[in-house]
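Ops channel
N.P.: pipeline sanity check, posting one input/output pair.
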């Protein structure tokens, strides 16, 4: 864990802060009665006399049913001779006095919080909260006990809900950050990196800066800690994308390039004057060139999708409309292969948060695969449905099916059940890998079912858009 060593930040409180304690204003609310309290020069909470005079009435009113039952019981006991009138009157006075005793607030600190004292209250000055809220990157202010005081909107978008008063570990489940906060208690800022694995893989760089408020003298005992998060996901994905692109391109382009080179040498040599051989070789060379073009296009598309996989789309689109356009586009291919393409469930819209172009590519890959590799069944069904909080689009063919041992690996890059058939159909081995990553960006999932001789079913499940989710 790397370290940086600037001096601890010192915050100067506004004029209404006394002895280094931040107050949101000079008017507080009592935890017992929700009545206003004023703050005297010594920082002590006092209450106006007009309000104090009303307290006993409020307490009696709150305990009216208890007092009524108690007095009734005392009267009955006196009537039956169990108590003398003097004893019953004394008991009534004691019960009435107990009802007038002020009760303590029922609001208690979380049981898991340490008992370490802190010089700052739970209520943070609005000016300080506004500054943290205006930061463009995720930021959290926590006290020395590790409880969250302030978070900004960027934290909610990037990390998740932020609840004031909860321990930091409830919001950020990263032991590295907890250790960095503990280490920063010596007054030295810390830097740490951590990775998230779910729902998508992300990387963050976190700076933990101790803060000392005015009046503090012990630099090793910070009042609060400011955590700022820098998202490294895009940078890491770019680095990985470069490495993967070079590795994949060098591996997959080697065969078509070798074929092109061999045909060119043949045309320059033995087949130089052979017109029939020249035409046949040129046709093969065109096919290989198109294969390389498709491969490069798919690699670039996959790299772009992976680059933004951690960013969920914010626009709302209708899957029914997208699937309808895709089916219209692929209708000529279905007609050419004499396959019936049937779409059901188009009656009601299926609204999801999505990127229209990516979802179009997703359903193009699934339906085109069904037409090419399952077309022998002469029928492909596309069913749209709503299941709970998910939109489900299922593409089913009635072709030869897929053996069970292949199912877990279908979404791997360049994995082919039948490499010869895939290349003959113009496949690159990246279609289902692209589908998987598009669904991952949309927080969806792919379910695959197949049985040899009975076809295959590919179901794309995407969470439905809810009001206020965008």
């Amino acid at each position: 864990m790397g370290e940086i060593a600037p001096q601890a930040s010192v915050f100067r409180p506004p004029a209404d802060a006394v002895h280094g304690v931040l107050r949101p204003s000079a008017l507080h609310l009592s935890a017992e009665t929700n009545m206003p309290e004023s703050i005297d020069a010594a920082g002590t909470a006092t209450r106006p006399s007009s309000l104090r005079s009303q307290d006993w009435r409020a307490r009696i009113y709150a305990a009216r049913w208890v007092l009524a039952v108690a007095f009734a019981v005392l009267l009955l006991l006196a009537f039956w001779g169990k108590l003398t009138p003097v004893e019953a009157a004394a008991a009534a006075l004691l019960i009435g006095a107990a009802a007038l005793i002020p009760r303590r607030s029922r609001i208690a600190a979380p049981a898991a919080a340490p008992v370490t004292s802190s010089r700052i209250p739970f209520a943070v000055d609005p000016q300080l909260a506004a500054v943290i809220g205006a930061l463009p990157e995720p930021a959290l202010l926590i006290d020395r006990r590790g409880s969250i005081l302030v978070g900004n909107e960027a934290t909610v978008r990037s990390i998740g809900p932020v609840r004031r008063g909860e321990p930091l570990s409830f919001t950020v489940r990263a032991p590295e950050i907890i250790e960095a906060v503990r280490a920063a208690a010596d007054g030295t800022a810390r830097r740490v990196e951590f990775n998230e694995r779910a729902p998508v893989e992300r990387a963050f760089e976190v700076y933990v800066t101790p803060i000392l408020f005015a009046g503090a003298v012990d630099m090793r005992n910070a009042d609060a800690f400011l955590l700022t998060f820098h998202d490294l996901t895009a940078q890491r994905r770019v680095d990985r994308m470069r490495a993967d692109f070079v590795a994949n391109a060098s591996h997959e382009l080697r065969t078509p390039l070798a074929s092109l080179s061999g045909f060119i040498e043949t045309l320059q040599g033995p087949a130089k004057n052979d017109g029939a051989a020249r035409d046949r070789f040129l046709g093969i060379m065109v096919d290989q060139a198109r294969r390389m073009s498709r491969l490069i296009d798919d690699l670039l598309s996959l790299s772009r999708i992976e680059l933004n996989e951690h960013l969920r789309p914010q626009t709302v689109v209708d899957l029914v409309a997208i699937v309808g356009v895709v089916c219209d586009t692929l209708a000529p291919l279905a007609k050419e292969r004499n396959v019936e393409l049937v779409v059901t469930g188009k009656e009601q819209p299926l609204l999801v948060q999505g990127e229209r172009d990516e979802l179009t590519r997703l359903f193009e890959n699934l339906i085109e695969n069904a037409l090419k590799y399952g077309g022998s069944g002469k029928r492909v069904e596309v069913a749209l449905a709503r299941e709970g909080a998910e939109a489900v689009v299922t593409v089913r063919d009635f072709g030869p099916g897929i053996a069970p041992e292949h199912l877990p690996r279908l979404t791997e890059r360049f994995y082919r059940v039948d490499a010869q058939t895939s290349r003959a159909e113009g496949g690159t081995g990246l279609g289902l890998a692209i589908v998987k990553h598009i669904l991952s960006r949309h927080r969806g999932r792919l379910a695959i079912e197949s049985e040899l001789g009975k076809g295959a079913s590919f179901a794309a499940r995407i969470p439905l858009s809810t009001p206020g989710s965008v």
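N.P.: looks fine end to end. The CA atoms of residues 60 and 97 lie 10 Å apart.
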